Structure formats: structure tokens, C-alpha cells
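A further point concerns the way the authors explain their paired sequence and structure data. The central task, working out the C-alpha cells from the amino acid sequence alone, is never made concrete. I therefore recommend that a typical entry be quoted early in the introduction. An entry of this sort, consisting of the sequence and the corresponding C-alpha cells, reads as follows:
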Amino acid sequence: MTTPRLADVIAALEAAYPPALAQSWDAVGLVCGDPDDPVERVLVAVDPVTETVEEAIETGAGLLVTHHPLLLRGVHGVGADTPKGALVHRLVRAGTALFTAHTNADAADPGVSDALAAAIGLAIEGPLQPVPGPPVDKIVAFVPTGPALTAVHEALSAAGAGHLGNYSHCSFATAGTGQFLPHEGATPAIGQVGRLERVAETRLEMVLPRARRAEVVAALRASHPYEEPAFDVFELAERPSAQGLGRVGALPEPEPLSAFARRVAAALPATAWGVRAAGDPDREIRRVAVCGGAGDSALDAAIAAGVDVYVTADLRHHPASEHLLAGSLPGRPTPALVDVAHWASEWPWCEQAAGVVRAALGGSVEVRVSALRTDPWTIGKP
């Protein structure tokens, strides 16, 4: 069995967690390591800290995959006399690569919040804050009926038009009549200068990624028999996707908030932070919004989703207090809140990421999930 290269593992991870989904301020991807190096073992963890780096090295992992970046903000050096620089040097000397999937894993489908929702036992409905799919155009071309139509259709397909999911050459065609009058200087493929022509034509419609617009238009001009082909390009409206921040789901059966808080605590690894709930303990919970990591910025989205409870991490006092105050007004119900430790909310993703590598590379690489608790809080008192 051929040992995969680091580049093979990265390709699998970036297919599952596309770098384009990362926020502009984020730092994702390969931090250190040679893409041509062989990788026999992979360790997945939430944090790139001393403990997980040492675990990766001690277990012979050629790659440490983490959710949180080591070098999130710009640096001018990674000297070994700095805490983060020391980790980089430790990894490089040991021949262990470091790869990060952060906000791109948050927004992916499935991603961090899918893993959290699954751990709690939710049937997922969709993202809490969906992001639109890639921008799409539609090209409408008018082509003489016959062999020319086949040639144009093939050329547009080869240039990137007409691809929908696992299908290619997708199009819609309607018959009609084209009309034109060639003037002096024209070299018409059909008809003569000075004579009005009417030709049996087909209206050919195909969608295409907006990023491929120039290539598709060039293919149309190159393959169309007319020296001046008639065509339109329309920018289509944004289309919702299954990608985005957070997830909305439902419990199999309703249960009171107090029981739901116990459910969340049982589903996640124990931390000093624990699990806290805000709201009436007897409130019935059925529909749930979750957001792995710090999610108070999505409070308004949780309200708009009409859920009974919102589960996330790092909820601050004032946003939570104001949220509950708003919910006390008649006719303005707001979801109850469940606050968990940041690390605990994202730890279920580790097994998801490990599964991505296993599915792509099979038994050619050994993948483990770190069980070390790297939550920074170590003491909790009631």
C-alpha cells in the first residue's frame, strides 16, 4: 500500500473544508511541513498547544490537524525564543506538519456545528446563517439548428457551462426563427449581403459559474458559425446553500430546558466551565440552534429562526442579559440560552475531520483524535 503524501491529506481536508469559506481575517491551511513528505499517522485536535504538539510527536504523527490557528495574526518571525515560534521549531525538527481548518470548517457542510448538533442528537434542518452559493450566470445563445448547435453545445460544456452537481451538458433548448440583414463589409455564414435572411435557430440556455464567464463567452464566439453571434449573459440571483455559520435542528421529542441542559452536558466532554442555561427551567424545547465556538454574534439569527433554545460558547453577560430582557416583552419571544465551553463545543468536530481523512485515504494512514482537554480553564467552583 502506497504511503500518502502530506499533499494528499491536505487535498482531502480542503475538499471538505474549502479555504474560500474562511473569513478574510482568518489564517487557514498549511502552517509548516513539506507537501511532498509521506504521512503515515495524523492527529486531530482543537488547539495547537504544547500538549497536542508533544502528543503528535510522541505518537509519530506526520501531521497535526487543528481547528484553531497557531498564527492567526501576522507575524514577522517565528523565533524559538517566543511561545508560538518554539512550537513551530519543535514541529519542524520532528518532521511533523501543522494544518488548520478554522472558519472554513465552521461554514462547511458538514462542519463544526453539524458535529455539535449530532452530538446533542438533533435532526438538522439547515444553517443558522447561510452563505450564498457561488455566483452563477446564465448564457442564452441563438444557434442555427443542425450540426452547429451540437458544436456550440460541446464547446460551452467544455468551457464550464451546463454543470449542475454531478451532471454536465445541462441545457434547455427551444426552436425559433432568427432574422438578420447583412450589410457591406459583412461575411455572413448564411445568406447574402443586402438580402434579409430568416433562419431556423435554437435558443440554447446554460448556467455557468460567474468565474468562468470569459471562458464560456470565448468558447461561444470560437464555435459559433456566425461572425457576430447573438447571445445574452444574465447574472442570476444569489441562491441559498447548505453552507454557513451554525445549524438549526430539532429534538426527537420535546423536553424541558432543564433536561435539555443535562443532555448537552452529557454530550460534550466535561470542563471547568461546565454548561450553563438561561431561561425558564420548565420551558419546552424542541427546535434548537447551535453554533460551535463563540456565537453571540448570531443571537439575532437565532431569534429570527424561531428556535426554542440557542446553544453556543463564550456568551457575554450584557448580550445575554439584554437578550433575556427583550424576550420578556409581550409578543417578542426569544430563545433560551445554553452556554458551554468554547473548546468543548468544537471538540466533536475532531472526529468529523478524522473521518474525512479516513474516507479519502482508507487504511493507508492512521488517524487519531486527541483526547487531551486543552480548554484553558482548569478550576471551576459552583
Q: What stands out?
A: Residues 112-131+243-340 form a domain with the Udp-n-acetylmuramoylalanyl-d-glutamate--2,6- Diaminopimelate Ligase; Chain: A, domain 1 fold (CATH 3.40.1390.30).
